[in-house]
Amino acid sequence: MALTHEDIINAVKEMPALELSELVKEMEEVFGVSAAAPVAVAGGAAPAEEEKTEFDVVLESFGSQKIGVIKVVRSLTGLGLKEAKEAVDGCPSTLLTAVAKDKAEDAKKQLEEAGATVTIK
Q1: C or N terminus of the chain, fewer CB within 10 Å?
Q2: Is the pLDDT of residue 98 over 70?
Q3: pLDDT digits (tens, 9 = 90+) for 34-52
């Protein structure tokens, strides 16, 4: 004879508190679960932060090698000479937006090798 959910609930209702506590502990061990209620954070639980997949490359300063940095900016962005010079002169300026992590790190490496100071956001 199989027990129904209703039979189980009625049996649990009739158990003394001590027996019920022991039953809960045994069920936690057997099934590898916890009966503890999750703790709510004031203001609601914050959603888990997703791993960032898009990054911005920001030129903070061009250092002492302005011409070399302009050349790298042109090769990375496809800008013309005038636009690349304006981007370098207008530091801090965002050179690349919403690019993959490896592309952002590669751009940062190239710019730093040319003497620039760069951040990835």
Answers
A1: N
A2: yes
A3: 777 665 555 555 555 567 7
CA-to-CA distance for 49 and 5, rounded, in angstroms? 38
Q: Residue 85 and residue 66: Cα distance in Å, rounded?
A: 9
Q: How confident is the model at residue 114 (pLDDT cuts 50, 70, 90)?
A: confident
* Cβ density class 47-79: b for 16+ within 10 Å, e for less: eeeeeeeebebbbeebeeebebbbebbbebeeb
Segments in the chain forming alpha helices (H)? 5-14, 17-31, 66-77, 81-89, 101-113
β-strand pairing of 55-61 with 93-99: antiparallel
Cβ atoms of residues 88 and 62 within 8 Å: yes
Q: What is the pTM of this model?
A: 0.54
Which residue bears the tokens 């592309």?
A: 103
Place of tokens 């090798």: 113
Question: What is the rounded distance in angstroms from the CA atom of residue 23 to the CA atom of residue 101?
Answer: 51
